[in-house]
Design goal:
Structural class: alpha/beta
Shape: globular
Oligomer: single chain
Pfam families: Fn3-like, Glyco_hydro_3, Glyco_hydro_3_C
Domain Fibronectin type III-like: 688-757
Protein name: Glycoside hydrolase family 3 N-terminal domain-containing protein
InterPro entries: Cellulose_deg_GH3 (IPR050288), Fn3-like (IPR026891), GH (IPR017853), Glyco_hydro_3_C (IPR002772), Glyco_hydro_3_C_sf (IPR036881), Glyco_hydro_3_N (IPR001764), Glyco_hydro_3_N_sf (IPR036962), Ig-like_fold (IPR013783)
Distance between the termini: 84 Å
Family: Belongs to the glycosyl hydrolase 3 family.
Strand order of the largest sheet: 2-1-3-4-5-6-7-10
Number of helices: 21
Length: 791
């Protein structure tokens, strides 16, 4: 070798930055190089708000916590950034620039160059100013269509990813147990199989874009006593195992969710945030979950302040870490100095910090945040002039035509026609009386976690950011020749009776009355539905029932339209309305979807994800009740619903026939095969929803009278028929036995093919034979449906 020969060398990079090395090796090396303060810094997040001018984010100040000093925190690092877009109205491009600059600052301030994981809410769309507001999860459930929910979640994920967000705090997999609970709108329904399949589809869509899906709230939040928010959950172990846990199990096993958020609640005296048997024993050791467990906001501090199982912040931190919580959100309270001091004095072993850190850093490695070529510039700002923020304003559209069309499709599939005497579809009415508090309210289609209702209401001088046509607007377009008279009648919850006379006068002059009632979404008492907006009963809020009854007395046909976050008892209207149309906060395309159903442009195909009660005071009840939960002669309270779970009408008729069962017996490790024919016998194209319910007449523990184990949407043209085949594995008949383990028992079963929980069309009696069989989390979860045309 001669001296003038140049030898090219590649500077060696630290092992943790080498993407060609195994993630475990990278993470171990990084942990070995960190100080205790640097380790802890990766385990908490800070609630921030993006700058409206594109500058760095600012910590969000709120009543519950002390101010956060980023300058003091950042030299050690910062694990998480919470809600940079979902705290204040900011142009999306300037929000992305603000996040970019903050990530650069975070990475440059710590000696390992590690950026933060950015979290955002995405329950009904990306919770950012100007982003599409999709229907709420209760509407997802009403579609009985996992595919459309999967596509929606992918669209949400792409928008979040484009501006630099890594993790979405959704979906909510709580199963409704009491419809008085304010957060019913955030749930998918009252049946664990429906919640599991729809929620898993959402997870699959979000994760397909690289966004980390966060399952919440694990577990039992929706089972709170009396439907009160953040209250104890007096459920037994079997209810938790058979009703509340299965959606989470399915979303982890089949959805690939990479994060779980613990619940606020306590069950039998043990808070979820300190429940090692739940967060480690079940979630990780049994189910094999390898992702991160994040705290619900302030949930670790609540171990001291609300639950009383910790004497100080350090004890709360240690209990949560030991149980299996990895990340404190949304600010530094227990995982900061108190935790460091507790390690120093031996109260908390450093090993539990390393365990949580290994999960957090592993996720960062998989997100590319430890790679040497990591860049803070998000895809939507690539190639932009980042030094001139004014040129960025308006560059990013989070509410484009494809999003809005998808939102409209979901809204249309989610509209539920509860009853109809033939008045719908409307035949070119000449005079319409449009009455009710939600008739001209643009935000009546939005849930409490939509940006305008969650954040925008605190900034009344800022435009809402998205186009929200009122039902008055869409009806005028749908019926251009009609004379539409608008009367408010009363407010959503103000109890005002003074406008009812005017509304009745308008009704008497009309050919048809459309009464638009329901909820106003809000937070902590600002609404009639939403987080902290629990209901004492399921009577319509305010004076709305008075208004509805007065309209029914007008002598004109009344079409009752509900824009709501929960089901309500409707009194006389159940029998006396010409039609009832139920929509659960249907998002930006909602009023267009409702107008289409009223005119007949769209054939309704939604089905109830929650039962509609007959009376306002029969809660808590769901269709999943055992025999003792049904109406009886020994109680004067009748829980029978006005409209049962799964119910929904359309503008055609369907005939179900030719049930065939391949074999009436199968072993406890076998399966049954059924087939039926569904024919559209009307003159409109529409979709039927075939629902499969399991009834177990004799079991070793009390079972619900029936439970959903499968479903399929069957679209049919007039006169068209399809042969629907379903394979039913014995595993779906499993339940938690007396010893706490899941079992399939031999014996007779009824498989009910039904249009709803109250409308069984065809029933097959089958028998499981052989020995009792134990099953676990690897069991088969689904009855498999196939469809084929038939003559």
């Amino acid at each position: 070798m001669t001296a003038d020969v140049a030898v090219e060398t590649t500077p060696e990079i630290p092992l943790w930055n080498d993407p060609d090395r195994p993630v475990t090796a990278r993470v171990d090396a990084l942990i070995g190089a960190m100080t205790l303060d640097e380790k802890i810094a990766q385990l908490y997040g800070v609630w921030v708000g993006a700058s409206a001018n594109g500058g760095e984010v600012a910590p969000h100040q709120h009543d519950m916590e002390e101010a956060v000093d980023l300058d003091a925190l950042l030299p050690h690092g910062l694990g998480q950034l919470t809600r940079p877009f979902g705290t204040a109205p900011v142009d999306p491009a300037l929000g992305a620039l603000s996040l970019l600059r903050t990530q650069s600052r975070i990475a440059s301030a710590n000696r390992f160059g590690i950026p933060a994981v950015a979290h955002e809410e995405c329950l009904a769309g990306f919770a950012a100013w100007g982003a599409t507001a999709y229907p709420v999860p209760l509407s997802w459930g009403a579609t009985f269509d996992p595919d459309v929910v999967r596509r929606m979640a992918a669209a949400i994920g792409r928008d979040m990813r484009s501006v630099g967000v890594h993790q979405g705090l959704a979906p909510v997999l709580d199963v409704v147990r009491d419809a008085r609970w304010g957060r019913v709108e955030e749930t998918i329904g009252e049946d664990p199989y429906l919640v599991g399949t729809i929620g898993t589809a959402y997870v699959q869509g979000l994760e397909s874009t690289g966004i980390v899906a966060t399952l919440k709230h694990f577990v039992g939040y929706s089972a709170s006593r009396a439907g009160r928010n953040l209250a104890p959950s007096p459920m037994g172990a079997r209810e938790r195992a058979d009703v509340l846990l299965p959606p989470f199990e399915m979303a982890i096993r089949e959805g690939g969710a990479r994060s779980v958020m613990h619940s606020y609640t306590d069950t039998d005296g043990v808070p979820a945030a300190a429940d090692e048997s739940l967060l480690t024993g079940l979630l990780r050791d049994t189910w094999g979950f390898g992702g991160t467990v994040v705290a619900d906001y302030f949930g670790i501090a609540f171990l001291k302040t609300l639950h009383g199982v910790a004497g100080d912040w350090a004890q709360a931190a240690g209990a949560a870490l030991k149980a299996g919580v990895d990340i404190e959100l949304p600010t530094v309270k227990t995982f900061g100095a108190p935790l460091a001091e507790a390690v120093a004095d031996g109260r908390v072993p450093e090993a539990v910090i390393d365990r949580a850190l290994r999960r957090v850093l592993g996720q960062k490695a998989m997100l590319g945040l430890l790679d040497p070529d990591w860049s803070p510039v998000p895809p939507a700002l690539e190639g932009a002039d980042l030094d001139d923020p004014d040129t960025l304003r308006g560059r990013i559209d989070l509410d484009g035509p494809e999003n809005r069309e998808l939102a409209r499709e979901i809204a249309e599939k989610a509209v539920v026609l509860l009853t109809n005497d033939g008045t719908l579809p409307l035949a070119r009415p000449r005079r319409i009386a449009l009455v009710g508090p939600n008739a001209t309210e643009a935000t009546a289609v939005l849930g409490c976690y939509s940006f305008p209702q969650h954040v925008g209401v605190q900034h009344p001088d800022v435009p809402v950011g998205i186009d929200l046509p009122t039902l008055r607007d869409t009806l005028a377009a749908e019926f251009p020749d009609a004379d539409i008279t608008v009367a408010r009648g009363t407010g959503v919850d103000d109890g005002d009776l003074s406008g009812i006379g005017e509304a009745v006068d308008a009704a008497r002059e009309a050919d048809i009355v459309i009464a638009v009632l329901g909820d106003r979404a809000g937070l902590f008492g600002r609404g009639t539905s939403g987080e902290g907006c629990d209901a004492e009963s399921l009577a319509l809020p305010g004076a709305q029932q008075h208004l509805l009854d007065a309209l029914l007395d007008s002598g004109r046909p009344v079409v009752t339209v509900l824009l709501a976050g929960r089901p309500y008892a409707l009194g006389r209207a159940v029998a006396e309305s010409a039609a009832i149309v139920q929509s659960f906060f249907p998002g930006v395309g909602g009023t267009h979807a409702i107008a289409g159903v009223l005119s007949g442009r769209t054939a309704p195909s939604g089905r109830l994800p929650v039962s509609v009660p007959r009376g306002p005071g029969s809660q808590p009840t769901t269709y999943l009740g055992a025999r003792l939960a049904q109406a009886s002669e020994v109680s004067n309270i009748d829980p029978t619903p006005a409209f049962g779970f799964g119910h929904g009408l359309t503008y055609t008729t369907f005939a179900w026939s030719d049930l065939a069962v391949d074999a009436g017996e199968a072993p406890t490790d076998g399966e049954f095969a059924l087939a039926l024919t569904v024919r559209n016998t009307g003159d409109r194209s529409a979709a039927e929803v075939v629902q499969l319910y399991l009834h177990d007449p004799v079991a070793s523990v009390v079972q619900p009278v029936q439970r959903l184990v499968g479903y399929a949407r069957v679209p049919l043209e007039p006169g068209e028929a399809r042969r629907v085949r379903v394979t039913v594995p014995a595993d779906v008949a499993s339940f938690t036995g007396r010893d706490g383990r899941r079992v399939v028992e031999p014996g007779d079963l009824e498989l009910r093919l039904a249009a709803s929980s109250t409308d069984a069309r065809l029933t097959a009696t089958v028998t499981l034979t052989g020995p009792e069989r134990r099953v676990d989390h690897t069991r088969r979860l689904h009855a498999a449906f196939t469809q084929e045309p038939t003559a």
